[in-house]
Amino acid sequence: MSGPKPLARALLLLWLMAHYAVDGVRPGSRNGTKVDDPEWDSMTPAERVKWCDTLSPLYENIQADLAPWKESGISMELQHATFAHHTARKMGQKGIAVGFKGGVAYVTDEPKFTLALGHHVGLFIVYLKVMALQERLFGKHMPDVEFVISTVDRPLSLALEEGKQYEPVMRFCKTDAHSDILIPNFHSYIEQYTGGLAPQLDSLNRQFPWSEKKDMLFGRFTPYFRHMHTSDPFTWRRGFKGAPICRNASKLVAECTVRHHFCDWAVNSTGSYPVDVSCKKRTAMTKHAAYKWLLHLDGQGLSSRFEQLLHLRSLVIREESGYRAYFYRLLKPREHYIPFWKDTPDEITDILQWAKANDGEAQRIAANAQAFVRKYLSHRGRACYWHRLLTEYAKLLKYKPGKQEGKYSSYWVPVNEFLEKTAKSFGDGKWYDVFKFMP
């Protein structure tokens, strides 16, 4: 297959900048380097498994996510239904089937499905590189297992009926109305976004000490509409003074103008405290560290901005959107962040007044957030979370995963082989390296 022409490649990169850059460090930047961790690198797989026990609070979410299958388990028939309905084998779905056998990571979806989904191909490749990393770090300590990863940034199927058998899908976000199994966000492994921030924390702390940060509410956002299921009771939004900002866009999808609504208010704000919140301007994520008060508004679904902002040792004011990530259960309001928009965004006035009057407490919360990131959202923390999640998930399987003749399990190719022989050559490798992987 011939590679993209220079103009087409340039347009692709421009699109990625517009689509993703505001939620992280701009694509094309190479500010960060791999975190130097010789102790972790020198451990044996067994030693890493033992070390992962030190992060036990992080795993509390796992049992809650797996609860729908605790009694019934996951049969081969249920797994095959998940493959059929939630991977690229079904028109319109952005999911990929992956497995481990004997400590080796496998792709179990054929390229004709996985390599035909635009920029989601790049996201699949990031997750496949994560699986290759798990293979290298844990080897035969990875369980025999197969599962589906979806890269769509909001959950699609409700799970509100007791006793119903739900299809297990791994995704980086959900609400309490959905049965998705939470996993680390692909942005956490991309240098242009969250992945590039961790190596810079000490230098950012020196560059932007608390005493020199600006007393200002700061935020930069892509003007996405919020999307959610029309019957999801946890995500409906009201605007300033209770104004309606949501509508049913279709039978199953509602949309809310959350970011537009707040940005419009910010432009006309005449409050007592300076506000610089925009859905039009662009600012590198590292530059956000110059401000004391950082606003987080979720995007189409859950936005990885929140995880990025926690790195910066500023006070993060987070919209309570109803969407959550795998580590949210461990976070504590007013200990790691300030909750906001539980009812309406008018709450921002009291929050800014509190932050100004309680500067020392705000500084303490900001420091706690960064300490949380260093301990639990590190490269070690993510690797350990994957290992523990897949270990517990594998216990639910009522069959032995592996290559089988038949409709769903006949394609099992090692991930490393798939990446080297298939992903690198597809489209002249444009999706293989458009996102710089950070282990």
Structural class: alpha/beta
* Percentage of residues in strands: 5-15%
Question: Rough shape?
Answer: globular
How confident overall, as mean pLDDT? Answer: 89
Largest sheet: 5 strands, parallel
Cα gyration radius (Å) = 22 Å
- Helix amount, in percent? 25-40%
Family: Belongs to the glycosyltransferase 90 family.
Keywords: Signal, Transferase
Signal peptide: 1-24
Organism: Chlamydomonas leiostraca
Description:
By secondary structure, the protein is α/β, with parallel strands linked by helices. The protein folds into two domains: 198 residues, no CATH class; 185 residues, 3-Layer(aba) Sandwich (Rossmann fold). Helix content is 33%, strand content 13%. The protein contains 14 helices and 14 strands. The strands form four sheets. A five-stranded parallel sheet has the order 10-6-11-12-13. A four-stranded antiparallel sheet has the order 3-1-2-14, sandwiched between helices. A hairpin with a 2-residue loop joins strand 1 and strand 2. Helix 7 packs antiparallel against helix 14. The protein is globular, with a radius of gyration of 22 Å. The protein starts with 5 loop residues before the first helix and ends in a 16-residue tail after the last helix. About 6% of the residues have low confidence. Pfam families: Glyco_transf_90. GO terms for molecular function: transferase activity. Belongs to the glycosyltransferase 90 family.
